[in-house]
Structures are given as structure tokens and as C-alpha cells.
Amino acid sequence: MKNFIDCNWLNSHLEDAHLFVVDCRFDLFDPSYGKKAYSKGHIKDAYYLDINEDLSGPQKRHGGARPMPDIPELVKKLESLGITTDATIVFYDDTIISSSRAWWQFKYLGFKNVYILNGGFQTWKQLDLPTTTDVPAPRTQGKIEVTLQQPIYLTMADVKQALQQSDTILVDAREEQRYTGEYEPLYAQKGHIPTALNVPCDINITADGQLADHPTLEKNFSHIEKSHDVISYCGSGINGALNFAILDELGYKVSLYVGSVSDWITYEENCLSTGFEK
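RE: above sequence
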């Protein structure tokens, strides 16, 4: 796998000088969860980055619930921890969902050696690997050269333009009931962006929080031709980032609509569809 690494590999490389481990545990319905979980125990020498406070910018009229952060500000924060452009960085959460969003943002900045911990902290604990409550001190000041990977980041305008092309497919990563509009716990409007197909990211994760095996992943996306451009989205760019990582793993040309539904509905001219696409 090119985007995921396993817990045993990480445990055997924790002392590597150029390795950084980042805890980004997160709960959509409890913004304080990640910090609390980190304080109760985390992987040795792991730094904590909050999805809302560190890896997202403030909400504005447009941009969605978790818009892109100010890039220079984020880079300054990362450099203060000692992170460099050539560092190897492993992100983890409880499973593999919010870590995928953090991983995607670092890919967008141009980092090449970044990975998602397969199974996350849940698997780490199941393997009885060491944890700590100690907070690591920042290392020597880092230096990051940003090379934005613009094709993997789409705005609402980009999505609308892309949908004019017959070989572009939208994939909604949320659970089926949110896609169809039967249930919507977070936003004022229900349903999905018109023409989008639904591949809930949960079906790509095993019961123990790990990435499903390759044949299962291929099957889950088998109705999407690899010759097509794929746009992954969700509610605010969290679940969509996991599907992005998987689609990239499978060899698709994929982009992430970071603002997702929470951005789409802030434009009066946009609507959502309910039910299933015909």
C-alpha cells in the first residue's frame, strides 16, 4: 500500500529521526473529543493536531464547515514542531477517517512521505503496543517548502465546471441515509449534490477499523471507470478524504471537494437531490 502503513511498522520505526507521528482523533459531534482522547493516552512522541483548530480555517459565508486553513499560518505551526519537507509523517485517529483528512492536507502542501496508520489507535491498543500521556517537546525548528498540488483540491466553482465534462463522476462518501436525504443531523438542507453516486466510506473499513482488503475496495468502486475523473466529497471534507485516499490507492484520478455539502448549500443557486440517482 502506498498511502497506509501498519502499526507494527510504525512501532519498529518510532526512533527514526525524520519520523513524525501526528494524532488527529476527531468526532463530528464532539469537538473536544480529540484533545481529551490524546490527553488520556497516545502513541509515544505523537504530536496532536486538531482537525477544527489546526487543520481547518474559520468558517465564513462560503467554504464549508471545515474550510482550508491559512497555509502560511499552518506551515509556521508545523515548522515550530520541527517538521521538514522531507519528513516521514504518520497520521492516526481511532480508525482511519479523520487521519485521512490530515493526510490529504499534507499531500496538498506537497509532502511526499505521508501515511495513514491502518487501524489507527484502536488497532494499536489491540496489539498492546506502548502508549503514553507524555507530551513531546518540539524539535529543532523545521523548514517547509510548500509546493501546492492544486489538482487534488477543488472549490465549488471547480466542481461545477468539472461536472460539465461527461467523464467526471461525483462520489458522496456519507452514509446512505444522509446521501438520500432521509436523515441529516448537521445541515439545513438534506440530500446530495445532483448526479453524485454514493459510496459510504464506512463500507471500506472493517469492523476493527482497518482498511478493507484490496478486492473489497475494488468491488466497492467497480461501477466507476478508472478512465473517469472522480471528485470525492461528503459533508465537510472528512469522510470524503478517506475515499480520496482509497481511490488514489486504487489508481483513480481523484480530487477532493473540501467544502462539500456544507459549502455547496451556501450558494442560493445550488440545490440538493434526494433519493438515489437513476
